[in-house]
Amino acid sequence: MKTVLCFGDSNTWGYSPDLPRRYNENERWPMLLQQHLSPNYRIIEEGQNSRTTTLEDPYAPGKKGLDYLLPCLESHHPDLVIILLGTNDLKSRFNVTASDISKGVARLVEVVQKFEHAFMKSPPQVLLVSPAWVFELPTSMEGFTGAEEKSKQLAHYYQLRSQELGCHFLDAATFIQPCNIEGIHWQADQHAKLALKLATLIPTIMR
Asked: Quick one: DSSP state of residue 6?
């Protein structure tokens, strides 16, 4: 059995942009991915609303991904970790550049790559996913002023970090778009797109 940990934010958790609910197990991408892969794979959902990479949110404690990643690895001993974070780092209150955000997510990659346990032959592999763009719209969620332009720069820097660290890379913005009314979260058809893409990619990583 090969275990895949999906470590992300609200777009991994399944936050619906147009209805006050969480997508169900037949809608959100990690569970769709489970359905597309063979029974030899076990998908672990680890999405959290407002999760950042390494930034401490003064208004929402407990959201820093770096603090939770190591305990999560120790709980699940995954063979592959998919890291899909960075959107919340775009919030204007953090005032960081796209390059800074990529360095934050690189810290998470390093935690995974350095994780060792006597029961594991080697550390997990990492697939670093650069998030979809954010759209600044009149109805966009509060707190993302200036986020759209930064979001368009993330893939460049994420790819640089993946090359430096020797991990796998995927640019979600090439095929995923947020809701064109809300601007941050993905509609169900976008979850389906990501699941299909990953279902094709993962077997090539975990041979």
From this structure: E
**69-123: pLDDT as tens digits:** 999 999 999 999 999 999 999 999 999 999 999 999 999 999 999 998 878 889 9
Range of the structural domain that residue 51 is part of: 2-205
Matching residue, tokens 């990501």: 194
Contact 37, 200 (CB under 8 A): no
For the chain, what's the residue count? 207
CATH number of domain containing 85: 3.40.50.1110
Which pTM was predicted? 0.97
Nearest to 76 by CA among 31, 124, 24: 124
C-alpha torsion 55→74→170→133, nearest 10? -30
What's the total number of domains in the chain? 1
